[in-house]
Amino acid sequence: MRKRYAAILSVAPLVVLAAVVPVAHADTTVGDARITSISVSKPVIGVGATLGAGVGVTLTASDDSGIVSVIGPKVVGPDGLVIRPTRNECTPQNATTVRCVYSFPLSPDGTDAQDLRNSAAGVWHFKAKAVAADGDSHHLSPGAPFSVKRHATLVGADATPEPVDKGDQLTVTGWLRRSNWDTNAWDDYAGKSVTLQFRKSGTDTFKAVRTVTTDSAGKLRTKVTATTTGTWRWRFTANTVATGATSQGDRVVVR
Fold it and tell me: What topology is assigned to 151-252 in CATH?
């Protein structure tokens, strides 16, 4: 087939991307057109209660006759929410290959139909269809996955009393919260396991001490025996709908 450069519209600057995602085998292909690679800027994106975030996607497609268009680029959430790109650049790399870059906004502010709701937390997919000059095509299905999660935060770690005598009890408290995209506020994250960690002064590594479950108000409270000077902190591990979080540390001197 005769080779030629594709005529592709360029309307936005290139952005730096990462995290290459393999093309799914369930894709629909006609002829030898192929979307050969997809990269997502972040495999996991945490979005707060009011401030939005974004995800960038880059796509490379090839056909021996040249790619003339990439149709319908979008990202789709687990609840069916569809977001179209606000930035779009496709650039021919040679006579057979084109590279496209997209930016998608992820907003929780509730003023637009494309804004996030809590039901949108989870695995998302980037979808598009590359069409070649000879009619060949490659349609991504189910698409390239990435995660959009409700941002979690741990409000401090407070260990008291300070200073403390060796062998006495320390009370360590904290507060786990996560963004609510339905109300644009921060919710108490109840019933979640959070790890209390300790780093001895003069060392670089935090070590797990125990796991504590948040109460109905997202609060954490536990008692430990003071043995040596060091820093206490809380650490929450991400789940399918919320990001992980690590609190600031509280250094306590043991006399």
Answer: Immunoglobulin-like (2.60.40)
pLDDT tier at 162, thresholds 50, 70, 90: very high
**Cβ–Cβ contacts within 10 Å for residue 157, how many?**
22
Contact 234, 247 (CB under 8 A): yes
Query: How many Cβ atoms from other residues are within 10 Å of residue 45's Cβ?
Result: 19
Rounded CA-CA distance 143/28 in Å is 11
Please name the helix (run of DSSP H) or strand (run of DSSP E) that holds residue 160, with its range, or none. Answer: strand 152-160
Residue 50 CA to residue 44 CA, distance in Å, equals 18
Joined together, the tokens standing for residue 31 give 């002829």
Is the fold of 20-149 the same as that of 151-252? yes
Report yes or no: 207 and 227 within 8 Å, Cβ to Cβ. no
Supply the pTM of this predicted model: 0.84
CATH fold of 20-149, please?
A: Immunoglobulin-like (2.60.40)
What confidence score (pLDDT) does residue 15 get? Answer: 33
Per-residue DSSP letter, 22: P
Domain ranges of the chain: 20-149, 151-252
Per-residue pLDDT tens over the stretch 200-219: 999 999 999 999 999 999 99
The full length of the chain comes to: 255
**Residue 207 bridge partners (DSSP):** 198
**What is the amino acid identity at position 180?**
N
